[in-house]
Each structure stands twice: as C-alpha cells, then as structure tokens.
Structure prediction request, 267 residues.
Amino acid sequence: MSADILTLVLMAALFHALWNAVVKGAGDRTITFGLVMIGQTLPALLIVPFVPLPNTAVLPYLFLSVVIHWGYYYFLVSAYRFGDLSLVYPIARGLTPVLVALGGLFIVGEILPPLAWLGLMLISFGILILAWTAIFKEQSFLGIMLALGTSFMVSGYSLVDGMGVRLTENALSYIVWLFIIEAIAIIAIFAPRRDRLRILTRRQIWTGIIGGVMASIAYGLVLIANKFPAGEWPFHAAHFTGGPCRSSNSISPNQRTRRAPAAIPKI
Prediction:
C-alpha cells in the first residue's frame, strides 16, 4: 500500500472517530444524526454543479449503497442507545476488515494469501480486545447485537461502493451523488420530530453539522482510496479501523486476480 493511500485512510479514520464521538455524546442522538446528515450533504451540494452525473453502470451500486447506508445509520444510532462508545465502535469496526475480505472472496472473487488473512484476523482481534471489558458489562447484550449489525452494514456498503466507484471515471461524482441521495432520510428523521428541533441550542446544531462535514470527508477519502487495486480493499478497511498492515508485501499484482467489473454478473 502506497504512502498516499495510507495517508488518505488514516485521515479518514481520524475524522470518522470524531464524528462517531459527536453522535454518541449527543443528548438526542436521532436529531443529532439528522444534523450530521445535513452536514455531510452541504459539501456535496456545493460540489455537485462541477461534477458530471453518474453513468448508468454505477446507478445500481449507488442506490444499493444508499439503502445499506440507511440500515447502517439505524443500527449505529440504536447501538449507541444501548452501548458505550468503547463497546460499539470497536465491534462495529473491528470485524469489518475480515467481513470485507470474505465479501471480496465470495462476491468479487478475490483470493487473498494465507498471510494476508492472518494479518486481517489479528487486526480485527486486536481492535475487538478494546471492547473486552465493555462486553461483560450488565445489559450490554443488545448493544453488542446492534454493533454486530452495524459491522455487517459497514462491510456491505464498503464492498458495494468499492465496486461502484471503480466503474466511474470520476470518483468525486460518485461520492457527491451518494451523499445527496442519502439525504432523503433527513425528511424521515426531522418530520416527526419538529418540536425537538426548536429546543436545540446553536452549539448543538453546529456540533452536529460539523460532525457531518467530518463524516463526508472521512468516507470520501476512503472511496478515493478504493479507486486503487481491488485487492487492497480489506486493508483499506483495516487501516480505517486503526490497524497497521502492509498489503503491498502481502499481495503481489498477480494475486490481485479479479477486479470489480469482472464480478458484476455475480451481484
């Protein structure tokens, strides 16, 4: 993995952890998440006049990703209602590298060498250790289940977007339209909660919106990184969760046998 890709994904990990902390620390997490969605949509609205429309080949991936993202938002907000950040975040993100690698194997047809699998499992195990104490806390079972659901959603949209972004010539166009279409959910969040919006302080509103801007930067950086060889997707996920690994030493160009377009008929 090149230094440029590593820098992109590590920056994304920092922004991602920050906006998760914003959601967890909020009094009304559902409203705060709606504000986060506004925040991640604002940069997209500013950029959309300068990017082309997504081509027809990526539309199925774009819409499927939106649906999976909505599921991810539901699981994440619900998980933070029943579990601490120290429980939910490591579980939700710690399993992702292995799940993405499994998805790459069965959906895209990517075969990773044994040492790569070992590295990914060690990274996931190391991250899950961070949640070890919280797992045994009283009444954390539901939080654990919701965190696991979040992890599957993350893996799902990571694979779909990884394939979708490689079918477009303009990664920024894919990212921008993804955030804009996702924003439909803002209506569902705010419409039944209009009274709660009136009691929010200016600080709460801006905290949520700034968290959304960080979220858009975080995921945008990951999707840009995904424009690089498909065999590195699991390693992007591993770096995104904070785990160090060196995929360039683990996977040779010949071992990156298939790329996303070759797997389209299997989806």
